[in-house]
Design a protein that fits this description.
Number of domains: 1
Mean pLDDT: 82
CATH topology: Rossmann fold
CATH superfamily: Phosphoglycerate mutase-like
CATH class: Alpha Beta
CATH architecture: 3-Layer(aba) Sandwich
Number of helices: 7
Number of strands: 6
Strand content: 15-25%
Low-confidence stretches: 1-9, 22-41, 211-217
Length: about 220
């Protein structure tokens, strides 16, 4: 039986950031209500076309992996990684996640598992296959833009793949993720009528002492 980690101010602040990021791309309801109120009673306001919902994507690297034993090619999570997986569940619990995408490797699936169990959202595996990383990144982006358009998608991937997914979705280059960094959280908003937006955050226990350069990245 797993024990949920208590929420910290950091997780509450990030959960609020998700809400603010989503509100930033929604149509201005106040303006619509004002226009309707101003219309004469005998002249109904024209019907408004339904706005297409934005797609929000939360992208993280898998949590800290366990030391691989002899012959172990697919390690799970270390105790610190298990703790981070629960921190991710705390951060994303109120973000409205509708889909979870991972690779076939245990460390990505185990990172997503606490959130998946909490929300009852299945984990969908997008394999890194014979086509290599480039084909995998394209498949992730295609599934987000088609199958999960208008939803909130959590993507759990690997240090060398996360920056490529961010670039594929936004066209924005982000720094490489070092081998000992596990706390990056990239929030991408894809709106049908606007340029992609990217918010860079961190969650859980810091895996490095932040430097000025890291705070800017």
């Amino acid at each position: 039986m797993t024990t949920s980690m208590p929420r910290t101010p950091r997780t509450r602040h990030l959960a609020a950031a998700f809400v603010l990021a989503a509100l930033a791309v929604l149509p201005g309801r106040a303006g619509e209500l004002h226009a309707q109120d101003a219309a004469p009673a005998t002249c109904p306001a024209p019907a408004l076309a339904p706005a297409l919902a934005p797609t929000t994507v939360l992208i993280v690297r898998h949590a800290e992996r366990a030391d691989a034993g002899a012959g172990e090619r697919d390690p799970g999570l270390s105790p610190a990684g298990i703790e981070r997986a629960h921190a991710l569940a705390d951060v994303a619990a109120d973000a409205g996640v509708t889909a979870i995408l991972t690779t076939q490797y245990r460390r990505t699936r185990l990172t997503a598992q606490p959130l998946a169990e909490r929300l009852g959202v299945p984990v969908s595996v997008v394999e890194v296959g014979q086509g290599g990383i480039a084909a995998h990144v394209e498949a992730i982006a295609r599934e987000i833009r088609t199958t999960h358009a208008g939803g909130v998608v959590l993507v759990v991937s690997h240090s060398n793949v996360v920056p490529l997914i961010v670039r594929e979705l936004t066209g924005i280059e982000v720094p490489e993720i070092a081998d000992d960094e596990y706390d990056h959280l990239f929030i991408v908003t894809l709106a049908p009528d606007a340029a992609p937006r990217l918010v860079r955050a961190r969650y859980g226990e810091p895996t490095r002492t932040p430097t000025p350069a890291m705070r800017e990245s």
